[in-house]
Design brief:
151 residues; alpha+beta; 434 Repressor (Amino-terminal Domain); Cyanate Lyase, Chain: A, domain 2; 2 domains; two-stranded antiparallel ribbon; 6 helices; 2 strands; globular; DNA binding; Cyanate_lyase_C; Cyanate hydratase; EC 4.2.1.104; Cyanase
Amino acid sequence: MSYNAAKDEAGQRIRDAKERAGLTWSQIAEAIDQPREWTISALLGMHPVPEAAATTVGEMLGLDDDTIRALQRQPYRPGLGELANDPTIYRFTEAIAVYGAAIKEIIHEDFGDGIMSAIDFDVRVTRREHPKGDRIVITFDGKYLTYPPRD
């Protein structure tokens, strides 16, 4: 089994075990004292999970030792590939395609020549009621990183 396959399989096992246990992602996140968004991403294979948190999740969900170890590994993060076919993921790529250049201009105008960190970074997903239909509010909160001066 390849490195990524083990993490992918662990993510599937976690989804199944979570459903069997009748737990929510929020309950699991609370148990390991992490944000819900990070917890989901990590448990589905996109972040290494610290040993204590992996053990806690393993106990909560009745996971085997191989799955708990797989959670702790550093992932390989591939491109979107077939994932881009998912309507939710596609909409994010579409939003960045449409607004990415504008966001970049705003960052440069308000902060200078730099980028937003995706390492020192938080993401929040919330629901907001609206007369035209509930809204999904997504907040990306990343540290500003200035580029070094160019010669």
